Structures are given as structure tokens and as C-alpha cells.
Amino acid sequence: MSGMVFFSVSMSLDGFIAPESSEELMGKQWMELQQWVFRQRHFRENLQLGTGGEEGRDNDILRETFERTGASVMGKRMFDAGETMWPDEAPFHTPVFVVTHEEREPWRRPGGTTFHFVNDGIEAALDQARTAAGSRDVRIAGGAETIVEHLNAGLVDEFTVSLSPVLFGSGIRLFEGIDASRVALAQVAAEASPKTTHLKYVVHLR
């Protein structure tokens, strides 16, 4: 039995999930956006940043997201940024399917992550991810354009937005290009913590 397709992202209060340029990743605004993540024990363990870190509901949400994910799909822009930033043991530990026009052999990393490069669109990538994930879920890792493509195609079952108390003013909007005439949402959960508010939605096509 195949699992669900979902995404989970941090977003600023004015709707942005990343700076315009990948060179600004790890800059001040990005660090503020992800502050709730960096503090958690699971995040530190997964990126091998040492011991310590907070435990609580935020940490549980990160761990649950990791444990439910059997494979991921991402766009080329996200992969290009991550290729230079992730440690040798990339933090996925599952197959990752990169939607790209670039032809490239699978890139195997220590710790169980293998990046597969798919040249024939999001549906082909998602089909391969579903097969690789088995009974676990498929996460659409990003970026925003890839997430919106999946939403507009009716391929996402649910998602979580973690709203951080920060304003970007400009950057990459999560829902830029969404077909609001086709996509309808039902909120199913809202959990607040000192650094973020987790909003969970089920997706329906109108």
C-alpha cells in the first residue's frame, strides 16, 4: 500500500520560504526563518552537529516528518544549493529524485541517501519515489516551484507550513503561481510554540 504525498516547509509571515539568491542561504533572514529548526535535538543529530538541542513538540514534529518519509522529490535549484551545503552524509537517508533536464548518473552518499536524476517531469519522478518509498510517504522537499507544480497537478495529499515570526519583504514565495481555482484546503491542525506555529492542511481539488 503506497503512502501519502506531502510537503513540510518553514515560511515567513509574508509568505516567503527562501531568499531570492541561493548565495543568501544561511544569511540573517534565513537563520531567523529556520531558528525553530536549528534548536532541535533531531536536527542536530541528523546533520551531525553534535550533542544537545531542545526536545519537545517542535523536535517531535521534525522527527515524525523524517520517520514518515520513504523517499523525496526535489527540483534542480534546491539540489544545486544543497549539493554545496549538505555534509557528506546528506540528511535524507533515503532515495531522492531530482527533477532536472541534466542527465547524470545516480549520486550515492554515505548514510543511505542516493540522488536520482529524472529528466521526464514531476509525475515520472513521483512515480519512482512512490515505488522507492513503499508503504512510507513521499515528501516533496522543494523548492517552491516544484511544490506548486505538484499542487497544481493534484499530486499532494497534505502539507504543513511552519510560520516563523519573521518578515522577508522579498524572496521566493511558497504559493507563487498556484492555480487557486483548482486547489482547495482544509485545515486539520494548528500547534503553536515560542518560535513557530505549525499549520497542517489536507488538499482537495475543486
Sheet of most strands: 9 strands, mixed
CATH class categorisation: Alpha Beta
The percentage helix is 25-40%
Mean pLDDT: 93
* Corresponding CATH superfamily: Dihydrofolate Reductase, subunit A
CATH architecture: 3-Layer(aba) Sandwich
Overall structural domain count = 1
Tell me the strand order in the biggest sheet.
Answer: 5-6-4-3-7-1-8-11-10
List the helices and strands and how they pair.
Layout: E1 5-12, E2 16-18, H1 28-33, H2 35-38, H3 41-46, H4 57-68, E3 69-75, H5 76-85, E4 95-99, E5 107-108, E6 114-118, H6 122-133, E7 137-142, H7 144-152, E8 158-164, E9 172-173, E10 183-192, E11 197-205
Parallel strand pairs: 1-7, 1-8, 3-4, 3-7, 4-6
Antiparallel strand pairs: 2-9, 5-6, 8-11, 10-11
Describe the structure.
With 206 residues, the chain is α/β, with parallel strands linked by helices. It has one domain (5-205): Dihydrofolate Reductase, subunit A, CATH 3.40.430. The protein has seven helices and eleven strands. The chain has helices at 28-33, 35-38, 41-46, 57-68, 76-85, 122-133, 144-152, and strands at residues 5-12, 16-18, 69-75, 95-99, 107-108, 114-118, 137-142, 158-164, 172-173, 183-192, 197-205. A nine-stranded mixed beta sheet has the order 5-6-4-3-7-1-8-11-10. Strands 2-9 form a two-stranded antiparallel ribbon. The longest helix has 12 residues, at 57-68. It is globular and about 40 Å long. The model has no long low-confidence stretch (mean pLDDT 93).
Provide a short characterization of the protein structure:
It is built from 7 helices and 11 strands.
